[in-house]
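Bug report

Summary: structure tokens for Peptidase A1 domain-containing protein differ between web form and batch submission.
Environment: batch mode, default settings.
Steps: 1) Submit the sequence below via batch. 2) Compare with the web form result.

Sequence submitted:
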Amino acid sequence: MDSLVFITLALCSLSSILFIESIHIQTSFSVDLIHRDSPMSPFHNPSTSQQDLIKKATFRSTSRLSRFSLSLLSNESPESIILPNNGDYLMRIFIGTPPIEKFVIADTGSDLTWVQCSPCVNCFPQNTPFYDSTKSSTFSNIQCDSQSCTLLPKAQQLCGKSNECFYSYHYGDRSFSIGELGFDLISFGSSNSTLHGGANSATNVNITFPKSIFGCGYYNIFTSDKSGKASGLVGLGAGPLSLISQLGDSIGRKFSYCLVPFASNSTSKLRFGNEAIIMGEGVVSTPLIIKTSQPTFYYVNLEGVTVGQKIFHTGQTDGNIIIDSGTTLTYLEPPIFDDFIISVKEAIGIEQVEDSSSPFSYCFTYQPDINFPHITLHFTGANVTLEPKNMLLLYESNLLCLAVVSSNIEGVSILGNVAQIDFQVEYDLGGKKLSFVPSDCAKN
């Protein structure tokens, strides 16, 4: 870390000790999850064509894959892998006392929640005021010798002049965020909420968690997307500092989402606690695998894929695909993808358009009588059948492209958000299972 940056940060410190306070009441609530390109998003540009939105989304997806690859395959110190302004889904939070509204990226592939803070040594542009910890009556910082600071990986821990805890998160494209670890009130604007023993709340009542650990970023450099719309990130991964880990037993270690197509006029829903539980006819579940080598990511095991009448098996059993809400496309590692793409081309039987736009491997001209094959993903204990909307994107006028591509990296596969559209997806960390059920997410 640059010494000048470190000294400047150290001078910004406060001097109180943070501890993690568990929430003893059972909490159940939901919040809006807004696709960044949807009409509901602050990023929305009505003059942008649907095809251009798809192109931008696939670019973000390719960029995200590269960060996953760096994190999964690198022998160097751990890295965060998400560039916050490149995420696909936004949520609204309120932080501090008095509360300051922020749009942040909701990310199942990251742990630490952080926002840009004042006094800022260097920050990327945002069109709302920076959070200022000195103006929040409920902020406290963390000391380096506290248990909370040790939740940061050692390579990401720094100590300030007054023993305060700093984080240093670096990204795959040489972007980074450096700042102070602290806690404050964090509230979520919810469309529905229930506290155990109480009645349902009114619309837009905020659910507040008084001792939430977060990063206050004083030195942030990002190399793309200077839109100024998003100001940070909410980590929904499995790491110890994520929102899910912090809420822990208060939400029964459960959350779920239901993703609408990003052109929809409805918002997706992110649910916590009992409200996150999915049940009834059609629900299937597979073991949720969290690896000690990569504790932030959610893995499941893909045993095989059926395309039409043809099935092939992966021969793997130890968790071979990451499920991720922030990656648009689905990526399969080369041996699996090779079998998959051959089967799809044979089943559709339409000639591939030459010079297909990157990163797609198979694009073809739309035909009204297209016979798209049934595609089923065979996870351990759960068969998930996908619709054409989960597999195809209209990339250009009259040009359909398969939303499944090769990762080109052995050992790296990601189930992206297009494949999850109109499914309720429940993460049960306590029960160590991931559940799916088809749903009309605009209504649910």
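Above is the batch result. After comparison, the two runs are identical; trailing whitespace caused the diff. The two ends are 46 Å apart (CA to CA). The chain is about 10% helix and 35% strand.
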